[in-house]
Structure formats: structure tokens, C-alpha cells
């Protein structure tokens, strides 16, 4: 039983400040609002988990009351007003550190738990995060190979390496059993290491081991058999006896060599033990957790080698990015059962998480210095569960992202540089979005520094938050903006552009209606593409929009490349339109303003006129100038007032507006709002339209669906266009029909 009681005397805050490299309020963030608290005190490391309520700013939109005004007055009005309000959400915090700091930390926690109703959960002994599990392979590029979230992971073996080793066979989410263990674990490495090297800190031991040569201490097969080892079918570099040379050699051994030999000995023993249990129970996957691993390459390499060697490649070793929190999460959930934690989905807050770190001293010295003291993870609660799109052909093999920047060094360098160069513009936009705030500039600078630091960490350690992608770079930026209370930096831009586009809507649809049928179909698609040009997240477009305020829908059409497009399936799409109408179309919208109003809604209107029901899905929360669900409701209301087709479809529920559950310029079809997924299934959706670079190129370009799919975008990045074989403003128009649709 552990309590947050006072230990020692004096100023706890001062003692904590002197003993660590991070300010206490950056470690125990939002502690004053903690509602539930759990501690997992191991033999060498302490892990904390607490639940807090987080108050942050959100941008709200509300339609103006235009009753009693004449048409001219209405035309001059913006379509809605914007207000910034406070919202309270839930967050899970996890912190882990060496027991050296436990007294100072518990004193600090006690002094700052101002909520007297906070529940302290008894400590234990011994959500769904994308890219959590990974395989490690020495000399591969990248060494970290992250696994996609697989819906069929059971059964497997879980090996938790703390002070000792605990081995659990997991068959389902609620059926598991302890099958074995060992007293030789992380505590053994730390204890013997302290005796051998006089080094008391765990990370210092790992650092010593990373510089050591174990062959100076260990007896190898070639030391015993010489060249004859080849006739035995054994590698000469295999360890025949750990520390075998120390008994006979008349010399002093370096601390580095002894630490390396010890690490190999412990890791090999654990790997062999895990392999034997896996074979005993007929399992081919072993997940390793516990803070002994710490993402340390030598440890993971040795365990992986041991598993491969003793299983002859039949068993796979997998590691966890947040391996040290298993006990703390278990303690937390045990005390939170009455809150039904499984009814929510959770997402990692990149702004508050420290990420997976390498032990290599050459990579990122500042981050490495901090990693030896504290490690942080934050998870934000999403208000609705997120599920797979029912139309995914094979959810188990679905990968949202098109390019893995962890693997593609050239692409990684380009996109990291892109995000660095765009930072000044984002800061400027953030300040401009809050003209009445006296501290906006100060907060924007804090955002700049935090996001810049994240980018530098990712330059040195691209695996820090799992597989590095354009999507994760965009999401990290949004998280950092929210951290400093910039909930929607483009809110005023969107408000202005939505108002301007609405005033052009009737003229645009009137011109479309005047065209012949076949000419109209091409004009509708061209309008979709031209609207997609209006993306403030693309520097080439932002520069144009900043310098030319008169750049509009007509000018955007002129920017598009002539047919044939870079990817051009339009003729196939046209032939399909000459056939029977689709039953229901799901459209994922992209940008506000011209894009959604003059591009998407005319396309929606044409589908409705064919007899196709339409589900228009927009972001739940803001990201860049993407249209949000709440904005789309107001836009649709204004369009319905002008257009009888849209008006009737809304009234008869043939046009339904839904939220995606996301706040990202990209799209993960495995994490969609449960209500949207249910509606897609209920309406028998047989066409999916994915629009925009973020949703249809950076993500989902290779996604396979069970139904027809349109993926369309304008390439607004010159480097990417050239890589794809085109030029700036090249067009992607993919129309895909599944060769064979399996039964559900």
C-alpha cells in the first residue's frame, strides 16, 4: 500500500528542483486538477498514473440571427460569429522515474494535490496508441520497425521485465494467466552492475554498456574451439560463458566491458526463457514490456537475437514504446472501473509526451540527459469511441500513411525542413487569430520553441513517437498549438472565406445547370479540384493567397494542369455515371470556403439529383483551414436557404452531415467516429469520396475498400509533385473499383 504522504522535511519543491533537470510543473502537469491517482512502485523504478481534468480554449461558431434583415444586409454579414470558450476534457498522465527521486516526488505531489476529493489508489507491485509495438533489427534502416494496430493479436506471450521477470499468457482481452517468471531481471542488472562498476544510476549503466566490448570479458565459442567451431555449425562469436575470462585473465576489466557483458547475460537469459515458454504454449509472438528495456538498442538486439536463435526464427520478439507503464495502467484501471473507461477512445498528446529515446549519446544530448531522469506520457480522452470504417477491405492490413518517413530518409529530410520553414507563418497566423489577447505573442513564441524542439528530436530520433509520417508531424503541430491555447488559428480566415464563397454559390450552380450533361460532369470534377487548391497548409498556396487577395475560384481553375492529369481515371468515372446511381456516397471534405462550398456542395447536389443519398463527413475539431462539422452545419443551412435541392435533401435526411471524430488534416480510416461508422453501414454506402492531399495522398492513397472509391487531390508541393512524376498543381484523380468484394 502506498500513500502520497509527506516524507522528510523542508521545501519539497526546492529539493525536487535541485535533483532533476526538468521543472516539477513540467513533470507533474496539471496535478492540481488530478481526480484519481495510482502508483506502481517496483524494486528500482516508480511509475505514476493520474487522471486530471484539463481546461483549455475551444473556438465555437454560431449562426447569426438574420431574421428581419433584407437580402442586401444578409449578404454583407459573415455566415456566423466566432467565440472562444473554455472547455474541460479528461487526460491521463503517466510519469516514471528511478526510486532515488521518490521521496522528493511524493512530497511535491502531496503539496500540490489541492483537490481534497482526489482518490489515492493502492500501489501495485510488479487505450489504444497507434504504433505502440515494434520489432528491432540491428543494422536495418530503420532499426525500429513499428507494427500496425492488428485487430487479431491474440493469443500472445507478455513478458514484463521489471526488477524481476513475469511471464503472462494472454488469450483474450479478459482471459490471461501467469505462467512463469524469473528473479533475474532488471533489478539483477542494476544491482550487480552497481557492485561491478560503482555506478548507481540505471541509465549510466546502460550508457557504460553501450560503449563496452563484452568479448573482453565473456568467453566465446571461438575461444574454446578455435577454428573448429565451424565444424560444429556454431558461430565463433556466440557467448559460451558470460564473464568466463574474468576468472583466468590476469588483468583489470573496464567498467564499460563488464556492464556490456552483464547486459548480454541478463538479456540472453530472459530471451531464452521467453522463447521456451512461447514454444511450450504454442505461441509465435512475444511482447516485451517493463522499464528494463527502455528502448535500449543493445538490450533489444540481444533479446531479439536470443529469441530468433532458440526458436529458429519461428517466434517474433516485439517491444513496446511505453513498456514501463503496464503496472501503473493496471493499478489505475482497477480503481477506475466505475467510470467505464472502455467506453471512450484515447489519443496520445504528442505535446506532453517525451517519446521513445535512443540511449546513443551522439543522437540528441539534451534529450538523452533528460531521459535518464523522467519519462512522460499523456493520453487525451476522446468523447466518442473510434472504430474502423466498415468498408475497409481488410482492416488488419490497413495502413493509413502512404510514406514511412522513418524509412525514407530523403522524404524525411524534405518534410522536416518544410515544417521548420512553415513555422514562422504558423506563429504569425496564431497571433493574428487572437487580436484582443495581450499574451498571444508570448504564447505563440512558446509554441514555436516547443514545436521546434519536437522537430529537432525527430531529426535525431525519427522513431520517437512511432512511425514518423506527414500525418504525425501535422498532428504534433496541432497538439502544440492547443497546448498554448490556440484552438483554431485559421478561424477568422475560414469565417471570411466561407462568407465570400457563399455569395458565389448560386452563380456557380447556375452556370453548372446551364451546361450539357457530359460537359457538366467534367465541370463538377474540375470544380472539386479547383476548390482543393485553397489549402492554407500548403506554402505554395499560402504565398499566393497572402500576396493576391483577389485570387479566387476562376484563378484556381487556371492553376490546374490540363488533361491528361498525372493520375487520370476520369473517363472510367464518366462511364460509371452513365450507369445506375449509387445508393449512398460518403464524402470526406477537406478545406473551408471555396473548397467545401463551391467544390464539394455542387458535387453533392449532383449526386442528390441522381437519387444518391450523401453522408458529408467533416473534422470534429479544427486543423489548419479544414472545415469542421460545426462550420459545415451553418454552411449547409445557408446553402439550403438558396438551393431547393439541398433544402429538400436535408429535410428528408437524404443529405446527412456527420463528424469524423478527428482533428487532423489527414485521415485514419481505422479511427472514425462510431456514429459515422454505424450510419455508413445502415445506409448501405457504396461510394467513398476522399478529397485533398492530406486525406487522399499523404494518407489512404493505397487504401483498399470494399466499394467504389474516388481519391482526388491537387499536388501543392513541388518536391512531392516531382517525386510523383508531375509538377506543381498536378492532379490526382483515382477511381477504384474493387476486383472482388468479399462478403461480410
UniProtKB/TrEMBL annotation:
GO terms for cellular component: cytosol; nucleus. Activity is strongly promoted by Co(2+), Ni(2+), Mg(2+) and Mn(2+). Activity is inhibited by EDTA. GO terms for biological process: coenzyme A biosynthetic process. Its EC number is 3.1.3.-. It is found in: Cytoplasm. Keywords: Acetylation, ATP-binding, Coenzyme A biosynthesis, Cytoplasm, Hydrolase, Kinase, Manganese, Metal-binding, Nickel, Nitration, Nucleotide-binding, Phosphoprotein, Transferase. InterPro entries: ARMT-1-like_metal-bd_sf, ARMT1-like_metal-bd, At2g17340_3_helix_bundle, ATPase_NBD, PanK_long, Type_II_PanK. It catalyses: (R)-4'-phosphopantetheine + H2O = (R)-pantetheine + phosphate; (R)-4'-phosphopantetheine sulfonate + H2O = (R)-pantetheine sulfonate + phosphate; (R)-4'-phospho-S-sulfopantetheine + H2O = (R)-S-sulfopantetheine + phosphate. Residues 421-726 form the Damage-control phosphatase ARMT1-like metal-binding domain. One of its GO terms (molecular function) is ATP binding. It is an enzyme of class 3 (hydrolase). It comes from the Eukaryota. Its cofactor is Mn(2+); Ni(2+). Phosphatase which shows a preference for 4'-phosphopantetheine and its oxidatively damaged forms (sulfonate or S-sulfonate), providing strong indirect evidence that the phosphatase activity pre-empts damage in the coenzyme A (CoA) pathway. Hydrolyzing excess 4'-phosphopantetheine could constitute a directed overflow mechanism to prevent its oxidation to the S-sulfonate, sulfonate, or other forms. Hydrolyzing 4'-phosphopantetheine sulfonate or S-sulfonate would forestall their conversion to inactive forms of CoA and acyl carrier protein. Belongs to the type II pantothenate kinase family. Homodimer. Interacts with PKM. This is 4'-phosphopantetheine phosphatase.
Amino acid at each position: 500500500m502506498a500513500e502520497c504522504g509527506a516524507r522528510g522535511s523542508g521545501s519539497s519543491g526546492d529539493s525536487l528542483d535541485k535533483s532533476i533537470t526538468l521543472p516539477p510543473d513540467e513533470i507533474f502537469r496539471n496535478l492540481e486538477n488530478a481526480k484519481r491517482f495510482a502508483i506502481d512502485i517496483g524494486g528500482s523504478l516508480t511509475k505514476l498514473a493520474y487522471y486530471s481534468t484539463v481546461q483549455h480554449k475551444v473556438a465555437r461558431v454560431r449562426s447569426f440571427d438574420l431574421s428581419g434583415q433584407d437580402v442586401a444586409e444578409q449578404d454583407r454579414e459573415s455566415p456566423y460569429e466566432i467565440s472562444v470558450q473554455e472547455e474541460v476534457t479528461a487526460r491521463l498522465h503517466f510519469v516514471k522515474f528511478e526510486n532515488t527521486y521518490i521521496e522528493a516526488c511524493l512530497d511535491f505531489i502531496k503539496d500540490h494535490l489541492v483537490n481534497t476529493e482526489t482518490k489515492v489508489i493502492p500501489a501495485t507491485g510488479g487505450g489504444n496508441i497507434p504504433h505502440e509495438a515494434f520489432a528491432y533489427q540491428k543494422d536495418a534502416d530503420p532499426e525500429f520497425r513499428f507494427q500496425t494496430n492488428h485487430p487479431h493479436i491474440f493469443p500472445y506471450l507478455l513478458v514484463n521485465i521489471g526488477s524481476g521477470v513475469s511471464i503472462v499468457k494472454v488469450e483474450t482481452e479478459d482471459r490471461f494467466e501467469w505462467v512463469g517468471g524469473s528473479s533475474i531481471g532488471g533489478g539483477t542488472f542494476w544491482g550487480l552492475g552497481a557492485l561491478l562498476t560503482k555506478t548507481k544510476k540505471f541509465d549510466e549503466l546502460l550508457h557504460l554498456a553501450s560503449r563496452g566490448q563484452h568479448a573482453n570479458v565473456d568467453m566465446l565459442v571461438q575461444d574454446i574451439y578455435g577454428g573448429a567451431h565451424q565444424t560444429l555449425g556454431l558461430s565463433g562469436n556466440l557467448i559460451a560463458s558470460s564473464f568466463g575470462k574474468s576468472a583466468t585473465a590476469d588483468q583489470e576489466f573496464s567498467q564499460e566491458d563488464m556492464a556490456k557483458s552483464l547486459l548480454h547475460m541478463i538479456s540472453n537469459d530472459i530471451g531464452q526463457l521467453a522463447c521456451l515458454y512461447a514454444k511450450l504454449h504454442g505461441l509465435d509472438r512475444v511482447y516485451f514490456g517493463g522499464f528494463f528495456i527502455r528502448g535500449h538498442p543493445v538490450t533489444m538486439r540481444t533479446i531479439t537475437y536470443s529469441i530468433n536463435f532458440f526458436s529458429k526464427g519461428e517466434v517474433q520478439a516485439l517491444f513496446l514504446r511505453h513498456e514501463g507503464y503496464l503496472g501503473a495502467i493496471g493499478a489505475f484501471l482497477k480503481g477506475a472501473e466505475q467510470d467505464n473507461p472502455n467506453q471512450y477512445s484515447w489519443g496520445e498528446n504528442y505535446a506532453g509526451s517525451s517519446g521513445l529515446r535512443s540511449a546513443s549519446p551522439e543522437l540528441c544530448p539534451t534529450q538523452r540527459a533528460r531521459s535518464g531522469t523522467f519519462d512522460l506520457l499523456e493520453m487525451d480522452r476522446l468523447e466518442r469511441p473510434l472504430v474502423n470504417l466498415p468498408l475497409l477491405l481488410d482492416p488488419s492490413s490497413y495502413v493509413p500513411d502512404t510514406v514511412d518517413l522513418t524509412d525514407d530518409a530523403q522524404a524525411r529530410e524534405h518534410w522536416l525542413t518544410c515544417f521548420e520553414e512553415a513555422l514562422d507563418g504558423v506563429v504569425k497566423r496564431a497571433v493574428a487569430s487572437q487580436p484582443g489577447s495581450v499574451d498571444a505573442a508570448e504564447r505563440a513564441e512558446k509554441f514555436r520553441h516547443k514545436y521546434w524542439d519536437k522537430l529537432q528530436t525527430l531529426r535525431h530520433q525519427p522513431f520517437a513517437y512511432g512511425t514518423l509520417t506527414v500525418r504525425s508531424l501535422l498532428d504534433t503541430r496541432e497538439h502544440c498549438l492547443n497546448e498554448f491555447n490556440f484552438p483554431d488559428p485559421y478561424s477568422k480566415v475560414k469565417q471570411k472565406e466561407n462568407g465570400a464563397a457563399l455569395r458565389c454559390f448560386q452563380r456557380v450552380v447556375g452556370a453548372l445547370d446551364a451546361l450539357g450533361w457530359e460537359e457538366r460532369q467534367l465541370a463538377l470534377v474540375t470544380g472539386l479540384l479547383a476548390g482543393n487548391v485553397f489549402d492554407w497548409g500548403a506554402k505554395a498556396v499560402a504565398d499566393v493567397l497572402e500576396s493576391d487577395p483577389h485570387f479566387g475560384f476562376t484563378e484556381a481553375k487556371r492553376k490546374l494542369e490540363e488533361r491528361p492529369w498525372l493520375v487520370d481515371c476520369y473517363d472510367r468515372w464518366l462511364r460509371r455515371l452513365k450507369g445506375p446511381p449509387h445508393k449512398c456516397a460518403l464524402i470526406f471534405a477537406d478545406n473551408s470556403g471555396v473548397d467545401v462550398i463551391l467544390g464539394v456542395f455542387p458535387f453533392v447536389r449532383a449526386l442528390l439529383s441522381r437519387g444518391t443519398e450523401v453522408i458529408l463527413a467533416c473534422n470534429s475539431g479544427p486543423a489548419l483551414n479544414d472545415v469542421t462539422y460545426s462550420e459545415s452545419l451553418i454552411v449547409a443551412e445557408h446553402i439550403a436557404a438558396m438551393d431547393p435541392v439541398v433544402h429538400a435533401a436535408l429535410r428528408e435526411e437524404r443529405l446527412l452531415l456527420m463528424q469524423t471524430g478527428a482533428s487532423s488534416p489527414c485521415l485514419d480510416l481505422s479511427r472514425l467516429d462510431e456514429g459515422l461508422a454505424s450510419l455508413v453501414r445502415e445506409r448501405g454506402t457504396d461510394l467513398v469520396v476522399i478529397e485533398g492531399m492530406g486525406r487522399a495522398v499523404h494518407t489512404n492513397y493505397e487504401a483498399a475498400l470494399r466499394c467504389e472509391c474516388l481519391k482526388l487531390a491537387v499536388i501543392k508541393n513541388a518536391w512531392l509533385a516531382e517525386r510523383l512524376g508531375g509538377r506543381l498543381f498536378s492532379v490526382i484523380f483515382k477511381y477504384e473499383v474493387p476486383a472482388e468484394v468479399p462478403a461480410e
